[in-house]
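Example record

Each entry pairs one chain with its bound ligand, X2X.
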Amino acid sequence: MVRKIMILMIALYLALVSSSYVSATTYKPEYKLSLVIGPQTPWGQAAQKFADLVKERSGGKINVKCYFAGQLFAGMQTNEFLILRQGVADFAVGSTINWSPAVKELNLFSLPFFFPDYRHLDAVKTSDPGKKIFKTIEERGVVGLAWGENGYRELTNSKRSVRKPEDLEGLKVRVVGSPIFVDTFRAMGGNPVSINWSEALTALQQGTVDGQENPVASIIIPYKLWEMNKNITIWHYTIDPLIFGVSKVTWDSFDSKDRDLIGKAAQEAMAWNLKEARKGLEGSTEAIDLLKGKGMDVVVFTSKDMETFKAKTKSVYDKWIPEIGADLVNAAEKIIKGIK
Ligand code: X2X
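Structure tokens for the complex follow.
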């Protein structure tokens, strides 16, 4: 009798162990990855690379599908962080701008004329401020696996060359629906209009707006914006990193081997993305030459031009530093000042 009970208990134990083993390795038929933009961009291609790597390395068990052009949030790009934390999207390669209404700290990257050079951005991302930002998003339900890049945001428009703040007067510029951008353009003397990226191209084509601001290699070239806007100002006024994020709900469903596989694939894909986002721009004039070849009139700011514009944005700093967190801004500023 005792023996029988023992055998029964062992059988029960084995059943429990094997069932928890099964549930730990249960995969969804499809994991959804959210993107604001299309597959023709280095941003979109990097996400597809991630999906391909993960599928191959997991022997087809982890099947990630890229949902381009805001399909998972019906175009409302500032909702992307929310759908990710809820697990509506499992993964996202998201811009800090689009996530910033949900995570105020991310407005750090949108402070006007704050990051003079790529080296400054890289140093901030890889030291304490960058780590603190990943910790903050994790506390809100999204695990950050890697940094990528959209890039320095440059101004294009159909009306005139912009070199002085007066040139912005009356210029209707499409910006993302993140409030700091409206504040910044108003402070500089422009007329900002918040429009989702899904509708921005039509607005530019139909002339309901005169211009927009986006990075050269990641957006302006792949979307051929010279067809709508002949003028470009290379003013480096904000920089827009991407974050490869995974919903915590999804992350916790993977075992440690899969997490390792996913984390490595995300880092590889984002390293590729960052290289592409800077291609022809860092230590090269190739990308700008391409724009000139397409008939664009290119104004490249000197550091003095940047200072003139930055001086106009003091109200943006006064309002947004407390929102972002003075400690975070000061820590980033210290790193920037330490790099000459
Ligand atoms: O909407 C934009 O301008 C874009 C594509 O750059 C972002 O998603 C921030």
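The beta strands are 31-34, 64-67, 91-95, 142-157, 172-175, 191-194, 211-214, 231-247, 297-300.
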